[in-house]
Design goal:
Helices cover about 50% and strands about 10% of the residues. It has about 240 residues and is an alpha/beta fold.
């Protein structure tokens, strides 16, 4: 996991621990060599944590300048292309970091907020830790206030109108798709009575085309045959 490595002389451990606490309050992960457990090999743990770090803070004092450990850590950090942040606590800037902009903390004060933001950018360019990212997001959102939704009279009326229109449209559609023509039994019976069957029509036509015998006798009278000529002639014997 990416973190910040602090290189310092144990004679300056008071300020080094104050700095580590300030970095932690800013949500940054810090490694300082007092984490080395009893029985572990210091060179191995120091090298491993230095190599895994994303940024290295060099606490410059005359005592740290004379420390072989601090000089070795600085050389390895430069060779590993680590982001180096020098802090001048006492004395003069060092030649190996002369070309790097340093922060003056000679009065024993902690760095300003710009220093922590620079560290955050260095961590984010490489591989920011999830914990640090969450803390930074919390800090940025700390002053924000999310306004709750306020329902006005206009929005309530508009919403109610939309709901009513949807309900009306639904029932109209449902009635249109479910319409069935229902014929009552009385209507069927009345239609059967008013509409004669084919058999009834045939009987009616047959009845109309037949003339009764009595009616024929009444129509044909003997006088109707007077003057009628016959084509038959008497035969000679």
């Amino acid at each position: 996991m990416s973190h910040i490595f602090i290189s310092y002389s144990h004679l300056d451990e008071g300020y080094a621990h104050r700095l580590a606490d300030a970095l932690k309050q800013e949500g940054l992960d810090v490694w300082i060599d007092d984490r080395v457990d009893y029985g572990n090999t210091w060179p191995h743990d120091i090298q491993e944590n230095l190599d895994k770090s994303s940024a290295v803070i060099i606490l410059m004092t005359p005592r740290a300048y004379q420390s072989g450990w601090v000089q070795n850590e600085l050389s390895r950090a430069q060779r590993k292309k680590k982001a180096i942040f020098p802090l001048l606590l006492e004395g003069e800037p060092w030649l190996p970091v002369e070309s790097i902009q340093y922060v003056d903390v000679i009065n024993g004060e902690l760095p300003q907020s710009d220093f922590y933001r620079s560290l955050e950018r260095a961590l984010s360019r490489i591989s920011p830790t999830p914990f640090a990212a969450v803390v930074r997001a919390h800090k940025h959102l700390r002053g924000w206030h999310i306004q709750p939704f306020k329902a006005t009279k206009r929005t309530l009326i508009g919403g109610l109108v939309i709901v009513v229109l949807v309900i009306v449209a639904y029932f109209q559609f449902k009635q249109g798709t479910n319409t069935v023509n229902v014929v009552s039994p009385e209507t069927i019976k009345r239609n059967e009575v008013s509409s004669p069957s084919p058999t009834q029509d045939a009987n009616k036509q047959k009845t109309n085309s037949t003339i009764p015998i009595k009616e024929l006798d009444r129509r044909l009278q003997p006088s109707d045959f007077k003057g009628a000529k016959s084509n038959d002639q008497p035969r000679r014997k």
